[in-house]
Amino acid sequence: MKYDGIILDNDGVLIELYQPGQRYEQAIKKLFKKKGVNPSKRDVKTFIPGYTPEHVQKTCEKHGINTEQFWEEKEDVTYRLQKRMILNGYKTLYPDIDHLGDIDLPKGIVSNNQQAIIDFIAEKYSGIDFDCSLGREKSLKGLWRMKPETYYVQKCIDEMGLENPLFVGDSSADIEAAHKLGIDSVFLRREHREGYYVTKKPTYEINSLKELKKILS
To answer: Which residue from 31, 137, 176, 204 lies 20 to 30 Å from 56 (Cα-Cα)?
Structure first.
């Protein structure tokens, strides 16, 4: 099947998956305490990646916190944490992204991570050349639009003028978004996805971006 472009997820596909740790949790706790709230472990977990918009809103409402304001403050804090990880070399690009240069097709990024992080990565690694790079908006609107919702994937398809794109991701959210749009998908099973259950069947499954060229040939 002839594809006219590829769209890739970012974290876990192009760059090492962000693993929130103790510093992340401490930053969330500090935000809560600024609001006069002593959060439970469950409250903090609500703001660890994997969150749902419903849980975020419910937790904020439970404590009488303005959800939009708290979410944007959380975005600022976690942006700085991730930026520091990248600058300190704890979150680096996967070596096999070099093989993307062998693919003569338009390329785009659609990430559930923040737009600011996607922009920072593109700036730091200027050798990456993508026709479209989309992360989520800083507002709650961005949270609701994350994959498996199709908003950003469709926006990227439209911006790139694609008719038959191939989507590459490493999570069920990625593959589900592709299913909703009726486009083919690739599940990239890196080491961190060993044993991971994919809720929707991808069109292809690979272990390295090196294998993409064969699919596209």
So the answer is: 176
